[in-house]
Design brief:
The protein is α+β, with helices and mostly antiparallel strands. Helix content is about 45%, strand content about 15%. The protein has 13 helices and 11 strands. The strands form 4 sheets. Strands 8-7-10-9 form a 4-stranded antiparallel sheet, with helices on both faces. A 3-stranded antiparallel sheet has the order 2-1-3. Strand 9 and strand 10 form a beta hairpin.
Length: about 400
């Protein structure tokens, strides 16, 4: 089972504190990640940014045809296991110690979504801490002076858990305790390092300065962003200007809106099963009902086999060729064989190429406008700071010479 995981996520084993729990449900194939209210991910982690990376990983794995039974991802830290949602019933669990970095993946499943792009500019977020910020969540031994407060956990949450996942994670007391426990371990280790004199080392001192710089510079950037944030009307106006300057950039290629029924490879007499289904359809059977009852594609079966509008090149060649060969709404394809199995495709509609109206791309362009304008203000601030500073070429050359 692990090779399947590594096929879709290129993890690097860089931090043994993390473990990734992959829970499988073999029969029937589960669609929990796609349609249920199971929390997106449970996180108790010591690696900044891994929350968002693993949420992305979860979405990609959810659409990966090679792992149709994947139902949950759980990250555990410092030996503590966060409980899975009660809705998840797992027959087998596989645990692997892996790192927290997920690389981009791509798939050619007929229902595979396009690759997600990372945010162009991850702006630092700083929330106003609640009035109970001083509440102690984890207490060290008497006299140690060590504890973890609500303020500590809030700050850690800002760094590690994206807003959309916080409610599902932090509404469970077990998860809060595990996250506080991890923070306490960090704090206790830091205290021991101070006591042993590690903080006096030149390398550690440099890292501490850089860590402080990161925290304070992020806070300053957030302040700059807030001070120069455009109004919604200004963002829409900027977005419209971008749209009108280059409308050809928003041309939608020809698409076909199709449904399919999949009889997966490995099914006994798979082709015969597909041929029997095709005969039923040719005799007037309802395609959506047959897809719900018989299709082995968990991503589309519940939707009556609906794959939505598809562009050229979004799926494997045999499927792509067959769906674009259909010309009339309601037309059925012959049996199409791919590496996934045997498909029957129905054309719902053909959508000609054409420019997308501004209303269709407004939300995307407004988001891009906010990012672009914020980046411009940040660039101005950087230029101001650099205007009276300069590199020391001698020092730079000497440093580079050490690595030659």
């Amino acid at each position: 089972m692990l090779p399947l995981l590594y096929k879709h996520l290129n993890f690097q084993t860089t931090n043994k504190v993390l473990a990734l729990m992959v829970v499988w449900k073999f029969s029937p194939p589960s669609n929990v990640l796609r349609n249920s209210n199971v929390p997106s991910v449970f996180l108790q982690t010591l690696i900044p940014g891994s929350a968002r990376l693993l949420l992305t990983a979860k979405r990609r794995l959810a659409s990966a045809s090679a792992v149709p039974g994947l139902v949950a991802l759980t990250v555990i830290g410092a030996g503590s296991l966060a409980p899975l949602a009660s809705a998840v019933a797992a027959d087998t669990a596989v645990t692997s110690t892996v790192g927290g970095r997920a690389a981009s993946t791509s798939g050619t499943h007929p229902n595979a979504p396009g690759a997600e792009s990372a945010p162009a500019m991850p702006a630092p977020a700083h929330s106003t801490l609640s009035s109970n910020a001083s509440t102690i969540l984890f207490q060290g031994p008497a006299g140690s002076g060590l504890s973890i407060t609500a303020a500590d956990l809030e700050a850690d949450t800002e760094q590690r858990i994206p807003p959309e996942a916080r409610k599902s994670v932090l509404s469970h007391a077990e998860n809060v305790e595990a996250q506080a426990r991890n923070l306490y371990v960090r704090r206790a280790l830091a205290a021991e390092a101070e006591q042993s004199g590690l903080a006096k080392g030149a390398a550690v001192q440099a890292e501490l300065r850089l860590a402080r710089d990161r925290v304070l510079s992020d806070a300053r950037l957030a302040q700059i962003d807030a001070a120069h944030r455009p109004s919604e009307a200004d963002l829409v106006a900027f977005a419209r200007t971008q749209y009108e300057a280059n409308p050809k950039a928003y041309v939608m290629p020809e698409r076909v809106h199709v449904r399919h029924i999949l009889v997966k490879a490995g099914t006994p007499d798979a082709r015969k099963v597909a041929e029997d289904l095709l005969k039923q359809l040719q005799n007037g059977a309802d395609f959506a009902m047959l897809a719900k009852a018989h299709s082995d594609d968990p991503g589309s079966a519940a939707k009556g086999g609906d794959l939505g509008p598809m562009e050229h090149g979004r799926t494997v060649p045999p499927f792509d060729e067959a769906m674009f060969a259909l010309t009339k709404p309601g037309e059925l394809s012959p049996i199409v064989e791919t590496k996934f199995g045997f498909h029957i495709i129905k054309l719902d509609d053909r959508l000609p190429a054409g420019e997308r109206p501004f209303a269709d791309v407004k939300a995307m362009l407004v988001k891009q406008a906010a990012t672009t304008l914020a980046q411009e203000e940040r660039a101005k601030e950087a230029a101001r700071l650099l205007s009276e500073a300069k590199p020391d070429q001698g020092g730079i050359d000497a440093f580079a010479d050490k690595y030659k």
